[in-house]
Amino acid sequence: MARELHKILLTGPPGCGKTTAVMKIVEALGTARIAGFYTQEIRERGQRKGFCWHRLDGRTRVLAHVDIKSKYRVGRYSVDIESFDKEVVSVLDSDAAGVNLFVIDEIGKMECFSERFVEAVRRLLDSDKAVLATVALKGSGLIREVKSHPGIELLHLTVENRNAMARQTADMLLALMK
Fold first, then answer.
1. Fewer beta carbons within 10 Å, N or C terminal of the chain?
2. What pLDDT shows up at residue 3?
3. Phi, psi for residue 76 in degrees, rounded to 5
4. Summary count for the chain: helices (H), strands (E)
5. What pLDDT score was predicted for residue 5?
6. Can you give the pLDDT at residue 32?
7. What b-and-e string marks burial along 97-132, b requiring 16 or more CB atoms within 10 Å of the CB?
8. Residue 89 carries which DSSP code?
């Protein structure tokens, strides 16, 4: 794949459907060679208790939870950086043969506690690989950095436009990956 391939970042306010859009795009791409992960809330009795990550190959684990202990914290959630580094960052290898697209959901405060994650994202953005990522609307460090990276297409999602944006993005990626 040539360097001119887009690096697409989806951003928007919490709850606008960034992960929903990513999942629709991944589903539309079907059997394309994709590596990466997405995140989801963990809810217990209607209350959010944490977040888990899901690799696109099916492996899943807790990313952050109110009941785990860690020196890395975001609000009331402690973040399990050790398993994230070992299990997730390892699939974000820009040198991976046969991978056409890397999916990263999300570039957010919890994930950025991982120095390995920050470096993997930087390598991917500088590589010739296609990247589809979600990024927090607000934040400093890597969150701010990726939004101004050369070659980035930053798409602002809302609840109203997320389905149309997901279709358009999937169509664009399918065309680029052929």
1. C
2. 41
3. -90, 5
4. 5, 9
5. 56
6. 73
7. eebbbbbbbbbbbbbbbbeebbebbeebbebebbbb
8. G
Cα separation of 84 and 25, whole Å?
A: 23
Residue 1 confidence (pLDDT): 38
Token digits for 8?
Answer: 């697409």
Tell me the CA distances in angstroms from 139 to 14, 24, 134, 142, 144, one per residue in order.
13, 26, 13, 8, 6
Is residue 61, in this structure, part of any structural domain at all?
Answer: no
Q: Is position 104 within any domain?
A: yes
Provide the token pair at 127. Answer: 């590589």
- Determine, yes or no, domain membership for 52: no
Residue type, 165: M
Quick one: pLDDT at residue 18? Answer: 95
Number of domains the chain is built from: 1
Along the chain (178 residues), what's the average pLDDT of each consecutive run of 10 residues? 69 93 93 89 94 94 95 95 95 88 95 97 93 94 94 94 94 82
137: domain range? 7-39+87-177
